[in-house]
What we know:
The protein is α/β, with parallel strands linked by helices. The chain contains ten helices and ten strands. It has helices at residues 11-21, 74-85, 98-111, 127-135, 142-169, 179-194, 249-259, 284-295, 299-311, 327-340; strands spanning 3-8, 26-29, 57-58, 64-65, 87-92, 117-119, 205-210, 213-218, 221-222, 225-226. The strands form four sheets. The protein has a four-stranded parallel beta sheet with strand order 2-1-5-6. A two-stranded antiparallel sheet has the order 3-4. Strands 7-8 form a two-stranded antiparallel sheet. Helix 3 (98-111) links the parallel strand 5 and strand 6. Helix 3 crosses helix 5.
Amino acid sequence: MSKPLVIVESPTKAKTISNILGNKYKVASSVGHIRDLPKSSKDVPEELKNKVSWNGVLVEEGFRNVYVVPADKEKVITDLKKSMKTASEIYLASDEDREGESIAWHLLEELKPDIPIKRMVFHEITPKAIEKAIEDPREIDMNLVEAQEGRRTLDRMVGFELSKIMRVLGGNLSAGRVQSPAVKLIVEKEKERESFITAKYFEINISCESSGQKFNKKIKSINEKRLASSKDFSHYGELENKNRININEEEAVELCKKLNNINSKITKIDEKKYRRSPSAPFRTSTLQRSASSRLGFSPSKTMGVAQRLYQEGLITYMRTDSTVLSETAISAARNYISNNFHKDYLPNEP
Length: 350
């Protein structure tokens, strides 16, 4: 009996979704991209060898990319086509980002199915999210596909041209679409740092005690005119803010002598209420930053761990700039807090 075929990009993700859908669906994996630009000139189709640039881009045809199936993906395609023969319809369930949309499009182009094919997307691997994705499929978003193609084409254009220079320079050097502009920014910042002119300014901190309580305070103004701080100086070491005064070392020492062992008076106490909200859910950048500072993880290790957690249905999709969570994710988090922590940790509303 035929049944729907769901294709994802990861075997782990396939196993998790298969457990959710049960035996009414067949879930298979493409194991990543099934097509790519040729790795070398020998992989370029013979009829295109004299037409392509950078081993895979047809410049005269609007920078159209030439795609080939790598040898290690031929069996994957054979197996998918075999599964397709007994399928009633196909759901392309790769991630909802540029790479995921590209994988879905390449599957459509390579498999050429003669049965209905749908694009299903979700941001967490939960029964409710998968059910909703199947009930509400969409078409492949060609804007995302073309965005990925543009990025891939630039990789080739920049990489090939810069590699020629790298070979001349010698050594184990690399360059690329992302790292080369990043290096430029670092070099410019370093030049700015080297050209920085230091300026000397003095701050005065005093130790106080009142009713047995010790505390430190900073002298902020003298004769109602505020003392200069680092932000008041220009890149050239000049005092920019004319409403500030900059005392020299002799004046600072003299002032400290006058302040020593004299009684100060607290003239005003301000009481303020502060409200601190919980941190927002992780975005990709904040996830990487926290993993680096707290665990010492590199960005690649962080994303590798997050990818596995996502594929096993334990976190929502990790490549995102949004902090908005679905009702399913919020409900799951509240249930976890309720079952594992004191009720005081669970607010009445999210």
